[in-house]
Design brief:
The complex is a heterodimer of chains A (about 375) and B (about 425). With about 375 residues, chain A is of the alpha/beta class. Chain A is built from 14 helices and 14 strands. In chain A, the strands form three sheets. A seven-stranded mixed beta sheet of chain A has the order 3-2-4-5-7-6-12, with helices on both faces. In chain A, helix 1 packs across helix 2 and helix 4 packs parallel to helix 5. Chain B is of the alpha/beta class. In chain B, the strands form two sheets. Chain B has a five-stranded parallel beta sheet with strand order 1-2-3-7-6, sandwiched between helices. A two-stranded antiparallel ribbon of chain B has the order 4-5. In chain B, a hairpin with a 2-residue loop joins strand 4 and strand 5. In chain B, helix 5 runs parallel beside helix 11. The longest helix of chain B is centred in the first third of the chain and has 26 residues. The N and C termini of chain B lie far apart (about 70 Å). The chains are: A alpha/beta (about 375), B alpha/beta (about 425). Chains A and B meet through helix 4, helix 5 and helix 6 of A and helix 8, helix 9 and helix 10 of B.
Chain lengths: ~375, ~425
């Protein structure tokens, strides 16, 4: 993993953003200080506000993101603050949104587009796979596409069909895309800022069931941390996090499954078992180092994901850990994932979703008696 | 108000010409309303293509009388100047030579594939010449001649088809998008480039190119609609060459013409003889001018013909008759222009030989450039996936390097060209 992080200057353009960034810092100074209860939605919104202050080439567009502020209100107030040229509604056409963003990124902008729901992003799939992911490669590095495609994803909200897909594996399978998914409020801010700063296109997968989860977070401290990272040339990009330390087994999770894994670890502790929880954060690039360090320490692992297990990110994680940690393993790696069925109707989703009990059952199966 | 392609209905409507502010059902504003007021015609008459395609020079090379060129109020096209016409002729000759040279190089096995625009050179040349220096073009895989006419090096243009990389030129340097294979996906990129330019207050115009088959794709619709809604300076240029590989136009669309599709987006459309470079320049020059002046996007359909198969891998005799092809030989864009310019006294033997020398020079450049055995670097596989290679790609790059080193030290040949 490279510690280098790009500044928010334009990848293909030439407009200096130093002045704009200074103005943003000034605006930041005026904000409230100290840790407060903040939602993931607010953290994501603040990340966009700060990025738009820092760099005038950052634009936000999509369906209902303007006047309404998005169906999840993640873009709330952006049009009011930055005007209709910087945050605007588009016609209702996802391929159009992503394809237009490609052209804007070619011509010096940093578009941040919203796909209203996971399954509504599929009309944009051709643009994402054939152009967003490949433009840098096809042009031998001549063009960069600094753009972010925000996707509210996964279930657990009782949504009707086509509103709860875990589509991350499609994107993770596509070379040229980065795939991030935050699980904490602080990471919502941190990772979205890093995604917007990235000169590579990022699929930013937002666990919609965590939008209204709150953590005690100091947004100004996060803002300062981001500025400091830029100055130092450091970043948290591409790094997994140890969400909870433990010694007996490792739970590897990402996005919406991280809180579930943490709950399982808390329950296991009561039963006398110490579980470490790894929050993957960045699916692409994948942090083999952090994940494998944990598994080598504990010797046992369970991978947890909402997506169907077959041919998925969870299968990839198992394969990678097995290849790298085989001699440290006391038991085969287990997975707790969604079943290989279309995402179920609301009354059935709790049977489908990985839950604490199913995770603890998998942990129990890790050959403890050997 | 009904928008109809039926000429009888339109004639009736013409008798009852209403201005937009007189019709509550019409929501037209800005330049379209302005044009309607200026020409005293209906919105439909402005947005719909003229009743006949615009043709200025007939297939025998004669300038048609103005009254027979297909123009109408609101659809007026001044004859391009002599200098532009001569430049166009030169590019036509070069373009034809490029097409035929490239097809020969494919037959000789020096290029993997070449989708020729033989017969469509007038469209290719006009697409390049109608643009100014700061303008962008988004071409398809069949538009190599247009790309070269915009100033991209011929050998760099052919890199895609030679097979050493997907694109051999820097799109940002030339303001020419990478030649696009997935149909109409590039039209949205054109829209985005135009949108970014507009937001910065630049007067860039973007020419977005596609073929007749491509108009069936969803991105065609999305691109035209986005460009219209955001009122962007994009000229959509459809080369209707009658076939999408083997499928004739009648199976793609039953619209009165492809240019008629524009009206559904609140955009003006026009049809033009795609083998008449004079008419093409007249129509595209005006479209670019209007777009630059803030008219919003326009759609131009050029009626032309793909004289050769889709590519060398295609057999056109399976789906069309030689007699049909023969009809189009008589409409050749090159011979028509030569006759016209010679008749006008603009083209003498000296000019002809100067132009064919230039065409031969480009052909030689292609022969030499594409005969060169350019070594490929297998490590390039990993260099341009991300701005900074991921740890995974670094591992894979090391794996390949190790593999090649072992092969080289074992004295074995490689199948990757790495030993070169």
């Amino acid at each position: 993993m490279s510690p280098t992080v790009t500044t928010s200057s334009e990848a293909n353009g030439n407009v200096s953003s130093a002045t704009a960034r200074a103005a943003a810092s000034a605006a930041a100074t005026a904000a409230a200080t100290g840790p407060q209860a903040v939602t993931m939605a607010k953290a994501l919104n603040t990340a966009m506000v700060d990025a738009m202050h820092a760099d005038k080439s950052v634009l936000v567009f999509g369906e209902d993101v303007g006047t309404l502020g998005g169906v999840f209100r993640i873009t709330d107030g952006l049009t009011k603050t930055f005007g209709e040229q910087r945050c605007f509604d588009t016609p209702l056409a996802e391929s159009g949104i992503v394809g237009m963003a490609v052209g804007m990124a070619i011509n010096g902008m940093r578009p941040v587009v919203e796909m209203q729901f996971d399954a509504f992003a599929y009309p944009a799939f051709e643009q994402i796979v054939s152009h967003v992911a490949k433009m840098h490669n096809r042009t031998k590095g001549a063009l960069k596409l600094p753009m972010v495609i925000r996707v509210p994803y996964a279930g657990g909200i009782g949504g009707v069909e086509h509103h709860c897909d875990s589509s991350e594996s499609y994107y993770a399978h596509t070379a040229g895309l980065k795939v991030f998914t935050p699980a904490t409020v602080a990471d919502g801010y941190r990772m979205l800022r890093e995604a917007i700063d990235s000169d590579d296109p990022v699929m930013f997968m937002e666990p919609k069931k965590l939008y209204w989860s709150k953590d005690l977070v100091d947004l100004e401290a996060l803002r300062n941390e981001h500025e400091a990272n830029i100055e130092r040339g450091t970043s948290t990009e591409g790094r997994a996090a140890v969400a909870r330390t433990g010694t007996d087994a490792t739970l590897i999770a990402y996005g919406p499954s991280v809180p579930t894994a943490l709950a399982a670890a808390a329950a296991a502790e009561e039963e006398g078992r110490s579980l470490e929880v790894i929050d993957v954060r960045s699916i692409v690039p994948f942090d083999d180092e952090t994940v494998c360090a944990s598994v080598r320490k504990t010797g046992r692992a369970v991978v947890i994901a909402e997506a169907h297990g077959f041919a998925s990110v969870s299968s990839e994680i198992v394969a990678r850990v097995q290849e790298r940690c085989f001699h440290y393993l006391a038991a085969p790696i287990r997975r707790v994932t969604g079943f290989d069925v279309p995402y179920p109707a609301p009354k059935l989703e709790h049977y489908y979703l990985p839950g604490v009990d199913r995770i603890l059952d998998a942990v129990d199966d890790l050959q403890w008696e050997d | 108000m009904t928008i109809s392609a039926d000429h009888t209905a339109r004639d009736r409507a013409a008798q009852d010409r209403r201005l937009p502010d007189q019709d509550e059902d019409l929501h037209v504003e800005g330049p379209v309303a302005e044009a309607v007021r200026k020409f005293g015609i209906t919105v439909e008459d402005y947005l719909l293509p003229a009743r006949h395609q615009i043709q200025m020079v007939d297939q025998d090379g004669n300038l048609k009388p103005h009254s027979e060129q297909g123009t109408e109020p609101g659809h007026e096209y001044p004859l391009p100047g002599d200098e532009e016409l001569l430049a166009a002729y030169e590019q036509l000759v070069v373009g034809r030579r490029v097409n035929d040279q490239n097809s020969a190089l494919v037959r000789q096995g020096r290029m993997a594939v070449y989708p020729s625009s033989h017969g469509q050179e007038a469209c290719q040349v006009a697409a390049a010449l109608c643009l100014s220096e700061g303008d962008w073009m988004f071409p398809t895989y069949r538009d190599s001649v247009a790309v070269m006419a915009r100033g991209v090096d011929p050998v760099q243009t052919m890199t895609l088809f030679r097979g050493d990389w997907h694109s051999g030129y820097n799109p940002a340097e030339h303001k020419v998008g990478i030649q696009c294979t997935p149909l109409t996906t590039q039209l949205l990129h054109a829209v985005g480039v135009a949108h970014a330019a507009k937001l910065r207050g630049e007067d860039t115009v973007v020419l977005a190119m596609c073929g007749d088959g491509a108009t069936s794709e969803g991105d065609f619709h999305e691109a035209l609609n986005f460009a219209a809604v955001f009122h962007l300076p994009v000229v959509f240029f459809v080369q209707n060459n009658q076939y999408a590989i083997s499928v004739p136009l009648a199976h793609q669309s039953v619209a009165p013409s492809l240019a008629h599709k524009a009206v559904g987006y609140g955009m003006a459309g026009e049809r033009v003889d795609g083998n008449d470079v004079v008419a093409l320049l007249a129509v595209l020059d005006r479209a670019v001018k209007l777009a630059r002046e803030g008219s919003g996007p326009l759609l131009v359909e050029a009626h032309t013909y793909r004289m050769q198969a889709h590519t060398n891998a295609d057999d056109a005799t399976r789906y069309r008759q030689d007699s049909e092809v023969a009809q189009w030989v008589a409409r050749d864009p090159l011979t028509r222009m030569r006759t016209y310019l010679a008749g006008k006294g603009l083209l003498d033997d000296d000019a002809e030989s100067r132009i064919s020398e230039k065409a031969e020079a480009v052909a030689a450049q292609l022969r030499n450039g594409l005969s060169e055995d350019v070594p490929v670097d297998p490590q390039d596989l990993f260099k341009y996936v991300y701005s900074t290679p991921t740890p995974q790609l670094k591992e894979q790059s090391a794996l390949l390097a190790d593999e090649l080193e072992r092969e080289a030290s074992a004295g074995g040949s490689t199948n990757t060209g790495a030993a070169k």
